[in-house]
Amino acid sequence: MSSLAPLLPGTVALVGGGPGDAGLMTVAGRAAVEQADVLLVDHLAPEEALTWAPVETLVVDVAKLPRGAFTPQERINELLVEHARAGRRVVRLKGGDGFVFGRGMEELQACTEAEVPVRVIPGVTSSVAVPALAGIPVTHRGIVQGFTVISGHVPPGHPASTLDYGALARSGTTLVVLMGVATLPAITAALVENGLDPTTPAAVIARGGHPDQRVVSGPVADIAVRAAHVDPPAVTVIGEVASFAAVTAASTLEEVN
Description:
Helix 2 crosses helix 3. The strands form two sheets. Strands 6-7-10-8-9-11 form a six-stranded mixed sheet, with helices on one face. A five-stranded parallel sheet has the order 3-2-4-1-5, with helices on both faces. The chain contains seven helices and eleven strands. Helix 5 links the parallel strand 6 and strand 7. It has two domains: 110 residues, Cobalt-precorrin-4 Transmethylase, domain 1 (3-Layer(aba) Sandwich); 130 residues, Tetrapyrrole methylase, C-terminal domain (Methyltransferase, Cobalt-precorrin-4 Transmethylase, Domain 2, 2-Layer Sandwich), CATH 3.30.950. By secondary structure, it is α/β, with parallel strands linked by helices. This is uroporphyrinogen-III C-methyltransferase. Keywords: Methyltransferase, Porphyrin biosynthesis, S-adenosyl-L-methionine, Transferase.
């Protein structure tokens, strides 16, 4: 089925909203929002996209804010199924791409198990788009041939962490850290302790895709100190490509010396 096919009553669409700028949403994502009877919205979804929905659309805030408002994932799954079974066109709107640390598969499984028709409309992932908006390529010919995206929601050594920081430090790839503002000191320390050159360039891009986007750059050994004033959401890039932040005119740059 085409991603632009009409959204039928009783159907759920899982839509990735991209990195923050509504103009970076996909055509299919916008079409789904324009047909929604119910919108279940995360706090990182583009605010402008809400204006595309019909005036009678029910908008439900299901944000998971760090140390703030929190809607359990189980309840979100229930809402998707409940509204779809009531014959409504349901759109789940997230920031970035819902299948990159966005629990999109959990929602897909909930709908599938409930025999609710579900459509996936991928979004532009912030792990690639936000660095690009700051003029940083995650790969670059002659510099790096790959990139690794990790979640920083728990620090190294935490029982819930499954990451091998020794392997990451030796990977030779660009490291992109999502959800890692609070844990950045521990993450960067673990990388350096495991052999990453402490002078490796790094950059923290705050509120990527928004008018107030800001970039803080510096060596990985002290990037956490330089970016201590940065609040979520932010994406951290670690690797030689992060040095492009110092020469780009694509965003406002805070160069802390």
